[in-house]
Amino acid sequence: GVAFLGLSLLSKSHEARKMLSDLGWEKSNDPQSTTYLPKDLNDLFRPVSRNFDREKLKDHANDPFQHAGLTENDRSVLAKISQLNNHILAKDAKANLLRIRKSKTNAEDFYQNSPLFMATHELLKNYSFGLPTRRFIWEFFEKQYL
Predict the structure, then answer these.
(1) Do 4 and 35 form a contact (C-beta atoms < 8 A)?
(2) Residue 134, Cβ neighbours under 10 Å: how many?
(3) pLDDT in tens for each of the 146 residues of the chain?
(4) Dihedral of alpha carbons 98, 115, 71, 127, sign
(5) 140: exposed, middle or buried (Cβ count in 10 Å: 0-12, 13-18, 19+)
(6) Which pTM does this prediction carry?
(7) Are 123 and 81 in contact (CB under 8 A)?
């Protein structure tokens, strides 16, 4: 319904009517209507193929855990960051990240670790983290002076 309303609004301009006509849409016969329908209604109700390429599932180009330069320790931290998006695992993950961040051996590593930062950014781009969680993650990478 919303799509037809959008087409009706677009059809008020001459350029849009021309484009709709070129794409195989026509105005309804009712002079007071601005509704556009496909010239061949079978096109409107033809089932869409839901086939997808399974090879794309094997592609690790967008997998943050496969980011170049990550160590096993980085992957462990990244796993804990990803667990922040799970309401069941978030409490333990946050506690573990705080413990890691406060340890003397790792304290200076995080604000300089570009591969981990980029992989984390990839996680934030691809998944829906709440604003407080995003703030926590960004603060995780800030340099601490105290």
Answers:
(1) yes
(2) 12
(3) 677 777 777 777 788 888 888 888 887 777 777 777 777 777 777 776 666 666 655 555 567 777 777 888 888 888 999 999 999 999 999 999 988 888 756 555 666 777 888 888 888 888 888 999 999 988 888 765 44
(4) positive
(5) buried
(6) 0.54
(7) yes
